[in-house]
Please model this.
Amino acid sequence: MVGLERPINILIVGVGGQGTILASELLAHVLMTTGYDVKKSEVHGMSQRGGRVESHVRFGQKVYSPLIVRGEVDYLVGFELGETLRSLDWIDAQGKVITDTKAVLPYTSQVGEAPYPFDAVEKIRERGHDLIVVEGERMAGEAGDARTANIVLIGALARLLPVKRDHWERGISDNMPEKFVETNLKAFRMGYEHQGERGR
Amino acid sequence: MKKVLLSGNEAIARGSLDAGVALATGYPGTPSTEILENISRLGGSKPMWAPNEKIAVEFASGASFSGYRALAAMKHVGVNVAADPLFTLAYTGVKGGLVVVTADDPELHSSQNEQDNRRYAAFARIPMLEPSDSQETLDFTREAFGLSERFDIPFFLRTTTRISHGKSIVRQAPWEETSMPVRPGLEKDPRKYVMVPAHARLKHADLERRISVIAEFAETCRFNRMEMADPDLGVVTSGISYNYVKEALPDASVLKLGLVFPLPTDLIHRFASLCRRIVIVEELEPYLEEWLAFIGLKVEGKSLIPRFGEIDTGTVRSALVPSSNKDITPRETAVSGDVPQRPPIMCIGCPHRGIFHLLSMKKIFVAGDIGCYTLAVAPPLNAIHTTVCMGAGINHAAGIEAVHEQEHGSVVAVIGDSTFLHSGMGGVLNMAFNRIPATVLILDNLTTAMTGRQDHPGSGFDIQGNRTRQVDWEVLLKGLGVEHVRLVDAYDMKQMTEALDEEIRRDAPSVIVVRGVCMLVRNRPVKTGNPFQIHADICSNCGVCLNLGCPAISRKDALEGEKPVIDATQCTGCELCFQVCRFDAIEGIE
Model:
């Protein structure tokens, strides 16, 4: 555990079915077992119906609020491109963005009524944030299961956080059903080692 | 000592089991649902879903009257349903500890209003505990049953969405109860349990005596505490708001209230005398503020903190830290304006889609209710026209028909199976009794879908997944006085159209049970089949299939004006698009 002056704020966004809550559970568990105080908050209820899912995870020596203040996110992890773009106002000027390139079109976009921002990566780059772009679905497929894209992104985030790598791997082994552990570890490692597109 | 990450709802479940709760009941409602689900998962008590919250409170109080500890859990609006027994249970008091959880939903994440149920505590004269994190939620829940017995009164435990669903670290020290639980046993004590006026008059005076004893206890209760620091600013707060205060104002003095009714007047005066300026930070209603003003203190509260919506650390900073940036909202529109909204929509293969397509095409006025089907309010269906509270839709339709005879044939009520059994039966009884020729569609998906698929008396399973008695709709509805009851298949457009055309014009009350199993249900088969495809050369681009609002159907390349296409990887084969296409352009993929 590293001494931190203030809590670190992680915002994970996605759409229902992408494993947003599972990813934030894993993250919070690993941070707790590392010795940090952790709080996490999300709203469930609508996620299964294709809505946006948003999970706040905060850790440090002592964390009071379970909610991040808009504009103070240190790490934005987006499982869905449009949702990453929608969340940019949440980021601190020094904040980093890790986003999947996966696009899940809202209904109005599907039927041609509202244009989907396929150029989101460029728009994020224009804002000047540190950016890591991850093709989560493809990489997860290579790891053995495209549904572990969420863990690939957690892997990419993990390298930026003050937690040792073996601690993450133990967290995955402890939290996942045994038959999924190997695939998830592979997905995590691919994300952790991913160089991808970086920089401002 | 074991450290675990628990949600508030998990903490309530564990705390109740630690306290030896014998009967735990409630009705599903966000954000309270997981309390009973966790009690059921952990085992060791009798968890039972009740058909509604009034029944839950009465059911639990029966266990309490016989000396056993009982819990009733519900969302904030559920307390409205349960208000009738609650106001008088304050008079009777309890024998076994009785705890009622009210899970409030500031910001209306999944609710029809954001009422502040601390008002209920003061109104009904029922003490209320309000924890600030999962650790306190566990501690308060453990103690609440014993306090209820000690003071002979039910206790409220109030959470809000961020407490109910938020997770924080809990140290699970073994817990030994200091107060001795009462001995179970039935006793006949009419002056305590029979609230005829002569008894109730005495019990009301006795209630005020008990509240004054608890108010004295509140002065030294360890759930209320002063955290003295800078005397220039003293903040009075409770619940989730405490966290925002501590983070935004680390130097302020804080009076943290965990027992929010009755309030500790002397402690508050003492705190106020130590601080130059007193500010109250509370979400929603000026509940604490009014009490502090009532006892003669000069305070600020709602002049600084909004009376609606959720607050956070930023709200407190903007209100009380002079240098903070007050203008953060305009930045929001800068980027989010580029991304189309993503409202929740009915699942692919949802059994509600067909009937709403039909109602939408026929331009019928739909008196709606609370459940997944409320999502039909959104385009392209646009087929819900009233939604107020559980069970209201039937009565809206009946009220319209009662005074608006020329509208007969253009109005229906829709209500889900779980919602109907919660509070729809009385509405149908009213229609039959008053001979109102309204038509009710019971959308029977065999589960309480919106809150995450809880079983109910119409599903045939109990909370633990065991088979139980299942409502016989025809017998029930005929018993209520409706002669014209039909059962139709939610995936058969022709059958639904015929039934609707006939019943909506009928000069007598009628009910159509539209049955199709929720796609997310696990304990029975759902409708699936081979996916479908659209032949572009036959398709006339009329758009009728797009009116279903199915996420598996889109326009080619998401471009306006292009013909619709079906994503075969997502299509569950519900056949509705195949049935509504008038050009035979849609066919199954073998």
Observations:
- Chain A touches chain B through 51 residues (CB under 8 Å).
- Residues 178-193 of chain A form the longest helix (16 residues).
- The CA atoms of residues 141 and 147 of chain A lie 8 Å apart.
- The helical segments of chain A are 20-34, 81-86, 107-110, 120-126, 136-143, 149-158, 165-175, 178-193.
